[in-house]
Amino acid sequence: MEYTKPLAKLIEHFQHLPSIGPKTAQRLALHVVKMSENEVKNFASSLIEAKTTIKYCEICFNMSCESPCEICRDLTRNKNIICVVAETKDLMAIEKTNEYNGQYHVLQGLISPIDGIGPDDIRVKELLYRINQNDIKEVILALNPSVEGEATSLYLGKLLKPFNIKITRIAFGLPLGSELEYADEMTLARALDGRVEI
């Protein structure tokens, strides 16, 4: 079935978004068409405002409309710990836990030779500069347990060793409520590696 041109164009734009397949794009486009004109204008205005006002923090490279960002300006946070994440979405996930009260450093990607992304393409130099200029006691590597995340963690671990600071990695393992027999080998290995004393 062929859609009328404006609808087809809208569906195509939604399909360019990550994790949005053809059916979800179609549902979103049809929902937007059913919205009131005022709601659509507000939605479009929010998109434009986000695109034109959000930038990267000059210190940690988190997304913010101000630089330094809200987290870097927060005087109640522990300035001696930096949690290194790949993207702003990872920072947001950690913030939702309310378990961490230190600083962040957003790499803006991971080392991926297959995709042509090397250490110079992400914010590694800026991380080293921050550690060199501040009284950092610990760096937490909170990178995904993917091939790229592993490569980036190993690379950063070697670079950070000469600073004589504590370098830790978040533990990866079994989610609550899961069963051992259904876990893959990598997850089980991570769970064993990340074990803690009780």
Please tell me about this protein's structure.
- The protein has 198 residues and is an alpha/beta fold.
- It has 2 domains: 5-53, RecR Domain 1 (Helicase, Ruva Protein, domain 3), CATH 1.10.8; 77-193, Dna Topoisomerase Vi A Subunit, Chain: A, domain 2 (3-Layer(aba) Sandwich).
- Helix content is 44%, strand content 13%.
- The strands form 2 sheets. It has a 4-stranded parallel β-sheet. A two-stranded antiparallel ribbon has the order 1-2.
- Helix 1 packs across helix 2 (22-34).
- It is globular.
- It starts with a helix and ends in a 5-residue tail after the last helix.
- The relative contact order is 0.08.
- The mean pLDDT is 90.
List keywords for this structure.
198 residues, alpha/beta, Helicase, Ruva Protein, domain 3, Dna Topoisomerase Vi A Subunit, Chain: A, domain 2, 2 domains, 4-stranded parallel beta sheet, two-stranded antiparallel ribbon, 8 helices, 6 strands
Summarize the topology.
Layout: H1 5-15, H2 22-34, H3 37-53, E1 55-56, E2 63-64, H4 70-73, E3 78-85, H5 88-97, E4 102-106, H6 124-133, E5 138-141, H7 147-160, E6 166-169, H8 185-193
Parallel strand pairs: 3-4, 3-5, 5-6
Antiparallel strand pairs: 1-2
Helix pairs in contact: 1-2
